[in-house]
Write a structure and sequence with these properties.
Aspartate Aminotransferase, domain 1; PyrdxlP-dep_Trfase; alpha/beta; binds pyridoxal-5'-phosphate; pyridoxal phosphate; globular; EC 4.1.2.48; Aspartate Aminotransferase, domain 2; 4-stranded antiparallel β-sheet; binds threonine; 2 domains; lyase
Length: 359
């Protein structure tokens, strides 16, 4: 019988707080498709201000936020987007930009820190002289923090550099900012400054910020006008959506300040797990709330098996591969949960080596 559950599968697993539920219950609502829902308009205005952009649009998910942004920037047929080969848009969004939007993806290798080399980005931009045979490059996408690179943060200097490159070639820049607030807090850079170079950003409210549902796209007024139409076309137009936006407003007010604690818990957990025989964590590279745990070769346990044993102790994590598991911290994981998780990892790993040299 599991006495305690510690859900580290993702920062998408948080449950709405009592304050969010109360705000949802009393939310002022109307028809958002008719641009009449006062709470949705308030959230959008608040987010535009926080992110330093002209306008904002509430969307049902981060996947739809990225899809809408790419489709608006690449509204002309034959467009191409440059993005990371390990980016969420390329790996985990069903290829929607191509399947639905007919936009051609041109990947550039992601470095371990989530960046793409500027010279490789520039080399990937199609030469207009080849327009008879080439797609036309119209957009560059970044991801900050970078989920598949372990929550690493793109610096403001790097982001500005990509923005400068985009402008030099007449391209737009979109940031998948599912965890942009994690990056802002970890870097100590105001979020509006961190995304200043971007033409659009998709910000998840439902991850580290802890809202039950939704993301917000921010950008120019003209961009958001087109995005609103694209959202409707994709079936994302919602009616009394103020119920969800009310929870998101509470999340912004209450949870941005908690992100630093998530990062501190991630550091404690990463350092602790790294000290367990048979496991390795590049703990010095843990910058935000995501940890990748590698199982050493001389261990007999697989990622899937370790996840199963941990689950028997009430610890929920996801396998990243046969020898790697992913841990994601969030505001509903306490320091006591971290200590309990560490002890469960130690129990789970006990006696799983092929020889005594497994150190
Ligand atoms: C980096 C990143 N971008 C986008 C998304 C998509 O967000 P959603 O799950 O709300 O579609 C996720 C995860 O969910 C993510 O980790
Ligand atoms: C798996 C991925 O799609 C999700 N964004 C997560 O980080 O949990």
């Amino acid at each position: 019988m599991v006495s305690r559950t510690v859900d580290l599968r993702s920062d998408t697993v948080t449950k709405p707080t009592e304050a969010m539920r109360a705000a949802m219950a009393r939310a002022e609502v109307d028809d958002d498709v008719l641009k009449s829902d006062p709470t949705a308009l308030r959230l959008e205005s608040e987010m535009a201000k926080i992110m330093g952009k002209e306008a904002a649009l509430f969307v049902p998910s981060g996947t739809m936020g990225n899809l809408i942004s790419v489709l608006v920037h690449c509204e002309i047929r034959g467009s191409e987007v440059i993005l990371g080969d390990n980016s969420h848009i390329h790996i985990y969004e069903n290829g929607g930009i191509a399947t639905i939007g007919g936009v051609h993806p041109r990947t550039v290798r992601n470095n371990g820190d989530g960046t793409m080399n500027l010279d490789l980005i520039e080399a990937a931009i199609r030469d207009p002289r080849g327009e008879l045979v080439f797609p036309t490059t119209r957009l560059i996408c970044l991801e900050n923090s970078h989920a598949n690179c372990g929550g690493r943060c793109l610096t403001v200097e790097y982001t500005d550099g990509v923005g400068k490159l985009a402008k030099k070639h007449g391209l737009k820049l979109h940031i998948d900012g599912a965890r942009i607030f994690n990056a802002s807090v970890a870097l100590g850079v105001p979020v509006n400054r961190l995304v200043q170079a971007a033409d659009s950003v998709s910000v998840c409210l439902s991850k580290g910020l802890g809202a039950p549902v939704g993301s917000v796209i921010v950008g120019s007024k003209a961009f958001i006008t087109k995005a609103r139409r694209m959202r409707k076309m994709l079936g994302g137009g919602m009616r009394q959506v103020g119920v969800l936006c009310a929870a998101a407003l509470v999340a912004i007010q209450e949870n941005i300040v908690k992100l630093e604690g998530d990062h501190e818990n991630a550091k404690i957990l990463a350092d602790g797990i790294n000290g367990i025989k048979g496991l390795h964590v590049e703990s010095h590279l843990v910058e935000t709330n995501i940890i990748f745990v590698d199982i050493k070769e001389n261990s007999t346990i697989t990622g899937e098996k370790l996840c199963k044993i941990l689950e028997e102790h009430g610890i929920l994590v996801l396998p990243e591969s046969s020898s790697r598991i992913r841990i994601v911290l969030h505001h509903q994981i306490s320091t006591a949960d971290v200590q309990y998780t560490l002890s469960c990892f130690q129990q789970a790993m006990a006696g799983t080596f092929t020889d005594e040299t497994g150190v």
